[in-house]
Design a protein that fits this description.
The complex is a heterodimer of chains A (461) and B (103). In chain A, 58% of the residues lie in helices and 7% in strands. Chain A is of the alpha/beta class and 461 residues long. In chain A, strands 3-2-1-4-5-6 form a 6-stranded parallel sheet. Chain B is mainly α and 103 residues long. Chain B is built from 4 helices and no strands. The longest helix of chain B has 31 residues, at 59-89. The chains are: A alpha/beta (461), B mainly alpha (103). Chains A and B meet through helix 1, helix 2, helix 3, helix 4 and helix 8 of A and helix 1, helix 2, helix 3 and helix 4 of B.
Chain lengths: 461, 103
């Protein structure tokens, strides 16, 4: 048993240092893994310290609960496919937020309106934790395609959202003002859960990178608020580190789409927009379809090829085949690089993880700002399942919904080959002018299929 | 260990700045591991769950605390293993270019 509070605080400080270093080590893939191990040590120290605190009992319950949770977490972590990583992250966000809300509920029940700052912390932890829990589950459902990935909207949605949130806040204020009884917090949690559901439902799939980052920040802040309730420095600091990280990522993602966070949350972006840009194909330019053989020739005799992967590659699980294609081309002396748009896929860094899984060395992966100047000296830009992030309309067409979004300058390459399932517009619901460019040819079909055909066509040359 | 509120707020604000500083050095490439790594770190709420369940003496608190422990430990264990699995995949090119195929 540890009875000296100073020893407890110092042990928690050890955990804090481990967590900070874990994040610090993430600055390079070289020692990132070591950092995660260090984070693991920090967690073990924190848990062991807490278990050894005076007055901790119910050992059997703790052990059984931890065993169940750990088993589920472990199996989930092992089994999940890399393409399903966004939903996994959403799920972990959710359970963390849920746990924070439950801790707040238990503390409220125990102390029955403790008053002052502790009540404020309980309210915040319950409110934010519940929003994160419900919102993350909806995000999970959308990413897993249990719920439609398209925005789900109903009339006066934003008004209803605000009313629900205001009602939840009203119960929070009542609690702070001295209302007591479990029902106050029950009502608050229920309303917060409802808000969480309604706030994510209208957000479309392509905006998921922003939403997941935001929910990540929420859970961190909820954990931090729990730290105020329990007077625990390690919770305050660790929670806030996550809050800061999620906030930063949210801002980065929103910036990469040139949209404000409020626009992402309340804009219901990506609804099927009737007629938006639909008339453009009438101006005489047409889409040129091509064959795997033609593309194989183009690729094999190129000096430099830049692959632009997008969500379509993830859906088709084509990352391994894409790497094989790159290998075959490199054997022929072609310089192959990958251009990764910050919001390609469904979460920050989604494409990097998929390509890393396919053993693409990270030295071949380039960020938008690094690679954009290189397109002008590129023979073939190979776009695999990416759409809106390559649309030149974002640069030139002020009426386009994606105007101002930074894009990959794919259209500057000498020729462009687009692998795409059909001419269906991308997530933003608008046509991509790139496809009408005379330098562009389209290879229609499932990304994995097309890439496999390309591999055998290149080998046959 | 009852710290005054102002001290806790000071710690909170400093942690926020520290977080921004450290996270802004994480390359875009590692943003997914960053998300799952921070996922793991917010699993620290398991400490809160242990405190609640460990001191619970009525059925309501026991149930709530138990569910909290289950959720939080799934968060901790799952978050850590997923991050480890991902980071293991990030590799440099093993041998020099073009001399021989990578595999």
């Amino acid at each position: 048993m540890i009875s000296d509070p100073n020893v407890v605080t110092l042990l928690y400080l050890v955990s804090i240092v481990c967590f900070v270093l874990a994040l610090r080590f993430l600055s390079s893939p070289k020692h990132a893994r070591r950092g995660n191990w260090l984070g693991g040590v920090g967690m073990i120290v924190a848990i062991a310290t807490t278990l050894l605190l005076e007055g901790i009992g119910n050992w059997v319950l703790i052990a059984v609960g931890a065993a169940i949770g750990s088993a589920v977490g472990f199996v989930g972590a092992r089994k999940v496919k890399m393409t399903a990583m966004p939903q996994m992250v959403a799920l972990f966000n959710g359970v963390g937020g849920g746990a924070a809300a439950l801790v707040a509920l238990a503390e409220w029940h125990k102390t029955a309106s403790p008053g002052g700052s502790e009540t404020v912390s309980i309210v915040l932890s319950a409110l934010i934790g519940s929003i994160s829990f419900a919102g993350s589950l909806v995000a999970f459902g959308k990413l897993q395609e249990l719920v439609s990935g398209r925005p789900i909207v109903f009339p006066a949605q934003n008004v209803v959202d605000v009313i629900v949130l205001a009602a939840a806040a009203a119960f929070g204020i009542a609690a702070v003002a001295g209302a007591s009884g479990d029902w106050v917090l029950f009502a608050l949690i229920l309303l917060a859960l409802l808000f969480g559901v309604m706030f994510v439902l209208p957000i479309g799939g392509a905006d998921m990178p922003v939403v997941i980052s935001l929910l990540n920040a929420f859970t961190g802040v909820a954990a931090s608020a729990t730290g105020f309730v329990l007077d625990s420095t390690v919770l305050i600091v660790a929670g806030m580190l996550v809050g800061a990280s999620g906030t930063l990522l949210t801002l980065l993602m929103a910036k990469a789409m040139n949209r404000s966070i409020t626009n992402v949350v309340f804009g219901a972006f990506g609804q099927v927009q009737a007629g938006a840009g639909g008339a453009r194909t009438d101006d005489g330019r047409t889409v040129r379809a091509t064959t795997p053989q033609d593309v194989a020739v183009q690729l094999s005799f190129a000096r430099k090829v830049i692959v632009v992967p997008g969500y379509g590659m993830a859906v088709a699980q084509a990352q391994h085949d894409v790497r094989q294609l790159a290998d075959v081309l490199e054997e022929r002396g072609v310089d192959v690089k990958y251009a990764i748009h910050p919001v390609a896929g469904r979460m920050p860094g989604h494409m990097n993880v998929l390509l890393a899984e396919a053993n693409v060395p990270y030295t071949q992966l380039f960020e938008m700002d690094e690679i954009n100047p290189e397109f002008a000296q590129t023979d073939v830009a190979l776009v695999i399942g990416a759409n809106d992030v390559t649309n030149p309309a974002a640069r030139s067409d002020t009426s386009s919904p994606i105007y101002g979004m930074p894009i990959l300058d794919v259209d500057k390459a000498a020729s462009i080959v687009v692998l795409k399932r059909s001419m269906r517009p991308g997530f933003a619901g608008i046509d991509n002018e790139l496809y009408l460019d005379p330098k562009t040819t389209m290879l229609f079909g499932d990304a994995k299929d097309s890439v496999l055909k390309l591999i055998s066509a290149v080998k046959a040359l | 260990m009852n710290l005054p509120l102002v001290i806790e707020l000071t710690i909170l604000v400093l942690a926020a700045f520290l977080g921004f500083e450290v996270i802004s050095k994480v390359p875009t490439m590692l943003h997914t591991p960053l998300m799952s790594g921070t996922n793991f770190i917010h699993g620290i709420v398991v400490v809160g769950a242990i405190l609640v369940l460990g001191q619970a003496d009525d059925t309501f608190t026991k149930i709530v605390g138990f569910v909290a422990i289950v959720l939080a430990s799934a968060n901790v264990v799952g978050g850590w293993f997923v991050t480890d699995r991902m980071l293991e995949m990030f590799k440099r090119r093993p041998e020099p270019k073009k001399e021989e195929p990578t595999e």
